[in-house]
Amino acid sequence: LVTTHWHGDHVGGLAAVAQRLPVGHYYDHGFPATNASDIPALLKGAYIEATHGASTVLHAGDEIRLKQAPGAPPVRLRVVAADGIVLGEAPGSAQTRACTARPAHPPIPDDTSDNYRSLGLRLSFGGFDFLDLGDLTWNVEHKLVCPKNLLGVVDVYQVTHHGADNSNNPALVAAVAPTVAVIDNGPKKGGMAVIYKRLRQTASIKDVYQLHRNVETTVADNAPAELVANDEEACQGEWIRLRVDPPAKSYEVEVHGKGTKRTYAVK
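User: That's the sequence. What structure does it adopt?
Assistant: Structure tokens below.
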């Protein structure tokens, strides 16, 4: 079980999950050396209790070993960012890296929350690639693609930070050039209009899916209804499922409850 960072919406339900599913290993980016105001002491204590203090701290460049099915394409889960550090960087590197290759997307003030320390993961299954950067924020995202794209292109992009506008740096979205984007937002959390517009204007993206309709924006600021799992704030918790075919040549995105199933070719 991977905890991307120490916020309640990413780790608060860990104990309940562990009671229902067998967890063999716990992974995280480590606790900060000093207490942070956005990391509740109770949450930290609950995590240590649930893991029995036996979690593994991940660093950029690490890989989580996954079971390889006989005859199946190789599967690889690599850490691309951790604790504010990206692939190839030295520990303690600044959030912002000087880069003039993309002057249209300048840095923003350093993030003081735990979001910038979020684990970022790239999952590969044969030729299929999936990118999940947790709640990683703007400046660290930029380091992943400028001056060099350290990620390459991907098939599916789990939209960072629930679709918030201090993440999803345009330089990163353009560089990874996903075919499908999935926003894991709430009815009043994330899924911001500016991010939906940015995704729709990205040439590589064929479809944008949302876990919830943003009830605070307009119809035009949300994905088509058939690509949104939950339409109302008082929802039934409908889900979106991604399935990759065994030879990793194509994948299907299903919106449960809407009957939507769309298939895409792996790049």
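The chain has two domains: 1-57, 66-265.
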